[in-house]
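[stage:ingest] chain + small molecule (pyridoxal-5'-phosphate)
[stage:ingest] validated
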Amino acid sequence: MYPDSNSSSQKMYDRALASLPGGNSRTTIFMKPYPIYAARGEGCRVWDIDGNVFIDCINNFTSQIHGHAHPALMAAVTAQLALGTAFGLPTESEVDLAELLVARLPSVDQVRFANSGTEAVMMALKAARAHTGRPKIAKCEGAYHGSYDYAEVSLDPTPQAWGRNTPVSIAYAKGTPDNVLADVVTIPFNDPEAAVSLIREHGRELACVLVDPMPNRAGLAPADRAYLEALRKVTREVGALLVFDEVITFRLGYRGAQGIWDIDPDLTALGKIIGGGFPVGAIGGHRDVMAVFDPRAGKPALPHGGTFSANPVTMRAGLAGMKLLDDAAFARLDAMGAAVRAGIDAAFRRHRVPGGTVGLGSLLKIHFADREIRDYRSAWLSEEETRRQTVFARALLNRGVLAAGNGLMALSTPMTDADIDAIIEAASGALGEVASTL
Ligand SMILES: Cc1ncc(COP(=O)(O)O)c(C=O)c1O
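[stage:predict] done
[stage:export] tokens:
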């Protein structure tokens, strides 16, 4: 049972605290009183260093769409290991993965690889500035786009800091320079009128509008089509670029979120699943915008390096993983996601706990809120809702299912119908535990 002060994970954490601030390298995976240390993973299961086994619905915050140690990915990676892992020369693997992404995403004529989603978003914003010659960017309140200063503005404003009607740009990290805040226009998600009016107000200075069509931290509510259409229209009107952050949503379908919503962004940031379990990021987009990276005529408008960008291990793993994601794989992921959402929603009703799931495809988020979740503010948890979420998370863990602390669950292709049933049963049991505390 978690927590157990005699566990190997607790001991490892005690050791880690000496050499790592807070015990690890990712704020997102910090967990009180201590995290569970992974020993190994196979398929959709993870074993911790105490020998406990879990069905993994975190999947490294959505990157592991094929779970762990998938044979096709292991074969691709081991073949590359024997050939060398990193060169100061380009390799064919980069061309192969770029061609696959260009073939899948109609808005993407060309691709540039990086090492993380953070870097991909950063380079997309810099590309938009280089292309338009304008300084400002607009982004949605509460939406997470990685750790670049501009991209993390207004990531977690508290209700005390909410503007009366429209969002305001607030620093996320201490030390954020004021000029960063001045160059970020924070727009509300899923409110086309307010967003359009803010974008028009700053129109002539705006390089781009950055949007994630289903932003996890802002609640995982899917964007209304009308919202994305309004952003597409107004960005063309003011001469700004539309940038989609598909670091997570590319796992929603063969052509990503842009295929589902049928929107043509100028630039797309990718990451997570395109690396087959290895660190990755990519920027893709229209040829005229991607030209900012092109050094053929001399120093490019936007120089971009990266010692490990497009490294062949990542490229080969990514290619193997992406090839497995055909229409049938996405149909199966969609069906599993729909089953888990329906099963957990039914359990909420059965146990008379207010709340339910949101999400699409292989992604879902559990909310303990008795209201429609549409954006960051509607997803904001009261103290009581936070308490219920904490009880649920602990109870789910002790029933052998891993989910992110904020209720995010990401499914993977190795999951069977029996695994899906087990996830629903565990969630139902955990909701029963929440019900007993009401
Ligand atoms: C939507 C979105 N964009 C960007 C990022 C940053 O990606 P990375 O963690 O690879 O830097 C994330 C990470 O979770 C994300 O969810």
